[in-house]
Amino acid sequence: MEQEPIKEPAAPSASSSEACTDPYLRCAFNGAALTALGISNSALLAHSPQGCEYLVNNAFASQECDYMETMTLCTKLCVDEIVHGGEDILARTIREVKDLPISALFVLSACGPEIVGDDIVGVCETLQPEVKFRLVPIECAGFRGSQYDGIDIALDTILKKLVKDNVEKVPNSVCLVAPHANANPTWPADLAWVKQVLSRMGVKVVATLTHRTPIAEIENIASAETSLLLSHDAGQKAADYLSSAYGIKQVCKGIPLPIGMTNTHRWLTALGERFDALKTTEEMVAEGERMVMATCRRKWPMARFLYRTPAAIVADATVGIPLVRFVTEEMEMTPELVALYTSQRPVRELLERELQSLGLNPKVVYGTDVYKTRKSLQEVRPQVVFGSTIERHASEGLSVAYVIEVVRMVRQFRMINREYFGYNGILNLFEYVQNEWTMGWRSKEKRYGAKW
Amino acid sequence: MNPGNNSIVFHGDLQQLLNKVETGEMIPKLQASHAPMCKFFTSYYVISGIRHVVPLVHGPTGCPLYMSDFVRTRECCEIRGVPLEPTACTSLNESNIIYGGEGKLLEAVKEAYAKYHPDLIVILSCCCSGIIGDDVESIAHEAEKLVGCRVLALRSEGFGGDFRSGYEDAFKLIMDLMEPPEKKMKGTINILGARWGPTPTEFNWDMDEIERLLGEVGIKINAIIAGGCTVEQIKHAREVELNASWCFDWGQKLGDLMQERFGIPYSNTGQPYGPEATKEWLLGVATPLGMEAEAIKVIEREIKEVEPDIKYLRKALSGKTAIIEISEFPGPIRALSLARMAEEFGAHPVVINVHPYTIKERMPSIKFLLETGVNPEIILTKGLFRLGSFRSSKETEDELEEIVKGYENPIFFGNSGRFPPCPVVNLTLMNPAFQPQYGFRGIKNIAALVRQALENKNLPRSRLFKGMLYGTRTN
User: pLDDT tens, B102-121?
Assistant: First the structure.
């Protein structure tokens, strides 16, 4: 199922030349924190001024850490440490927490200490004999790139520092890469669905990079036969490294993630082919499609009334690219704007292939920011927007009928995680459309008062 | 009264705690697991409270994270009825760090003006731009010649100071927008110390109560700085007769500076919690304006309206020990204001776990409160100094439960995340049903909360929430 990259020139990144942006994406430090906090029984020490701790808090929430199990710490650098260096305070802080009952302490450096040249690797090497846990320094200053670059940086460090190479291969096994580089605010449900599917196919998950992952799993990751990348935005470098260093072959490469019936069918088939489980795949597809259709027959999703309504998709590539087919095929709307947060070549190639295959020609914005999104919405004037709360406000005054909040920050609080992947994912997305449709109809004011 | 608890590390009054912090006997340093906001955050908070401003963050994209998600979208757009306005950023990368970001910043200001047509652009420097030495002030000066609005620069590097310095420097910067007065606005004041933007649209807030009371007296407000004020209002800020603050702690610096530089008097009063403090607050504003008589009339009328609540609070709190612990929400200065209110109603206030760091950071406000006679009993426990989360600290919860047992007739003022064996008055600002807490309407709300606590004291507490916060382990 792997496909060759298309040859035609890709659209240029729209974000490169601008000096003033209103970004959707956070910095590398945030992405690295998001990755490190996915490793269980560990703590994170931000070698940074105190404000950067809020980037860690954001990552802590996204990885659904439990503060009773995971502690975050900060060296809280001030002018003194910027002028004279912060290595002493880093060492002091590590010693201060040396009794924590953890297996690893991830030390992340932010912009300030990296510019002034603090050697966090050296400090960690020096102090390693004094502490019982592993010290893992990650140099991930915010200026090194976006949150996705930070995920790649952290995965690179973690793999190079922790993986053992003298392990036996586990037959029919996989390691899952970058499930957290996904703008579904409850992405752990996507990961859970993937694990459930693999289990049914008899495939063993050796490790997840990263979500509630014990260090022992990472140490043994070389025992995996294959890797499965769960993001279109980050993690490809880790998958490539696993391939070159340990011969771990990537499966489902170059096809959209399993959102919607066709994407799910295609993705499951690729897995089934690799793991010699096509019969199970066929069963899952048949059961899943039957369940979705039967549920829709009983519940009557109103999405069917949005036939060929002009739509916009503003999202990360992980959710946004698969949504293009789902919105076009399953929901029969017409995407007229696709604005993605990222602009890397593989993202552009994948989207171009999808658009070509569907015969669509929407306005495409790569590396969008809030300003470009607003301007594109003004230009395209879609009736339905798949995006976040930001697009709800960015659409004000544009007569957008529905803003379906599916990514990043969403208005609706979700106590139970909801996946977008797979068959329940289709129903979850229909539900969001339905609720937005219902809210859109609801009277905002009363025409007159009651008498009682 | 003997709390009888061996986990106590300080037991005295506020003055004694202040002395220990000032002499270095108690070190005002937070543990590694606690990181308050940095200077950049608090500077942004203030600047974003100005209407049609572009806060231009000169740094990588991580710095505006909390701002764009939390302040702009969630707080301002979703709750405060503010339209989507930009959180602009120069997105500094490695190359800019090596070669400097001044050129990019100048371009960014021009772009920001062309894109957003703002009334004001404020450049906020971050750690990166601060360390590499980008001259943001000069760029602002140059850029102002090229665009059609004022361009100011604020050195707000995260390492450059604690959260307090960000507020203060931002308020100080706002003074640069204030133009020489053309006239005096009779009976008009500025309210100082607000941030983020206007109050929520769906619920009444403390600031709304202040505005209501001032309106009843006939006092006009030129600007709430920076609670959704316009640049035009700030320009005219020197035309008022008086400055006042909705919270002494936040407004004091700007009030003092405006008094010093422009000769505009500043009404020095504490937070209007309870009848006496509310009266003081209102008279503190009305008297210098020559509107004392009108204010007294309003106070008498309002007091009459809440008389049953005042009577109830006197009866309910008289002879009780009010254990007050308000660490994160709503904050330590409110805890001290509540201590004063509790005393007014006949209770003996005991404030628990105000970190020495807080004493250091809020020193001017603490000293002001001491001057006004607020000097409650204070207890600090060992748990306060342990690694971990303040809000859900099992240690401080256990210590609180133990301390409460040592007092006769205790009542706890804090939030419902605590489970002491006594009535709990839930003063969290997260429950809009009982806001405001300021002023006369605040008295009504606090009376309702005390009534809830006392009348329902025998109802079972949530095993679920307690387990969620503190775990189910017994040791």
Answer: 999 999 999 999 999 999 99
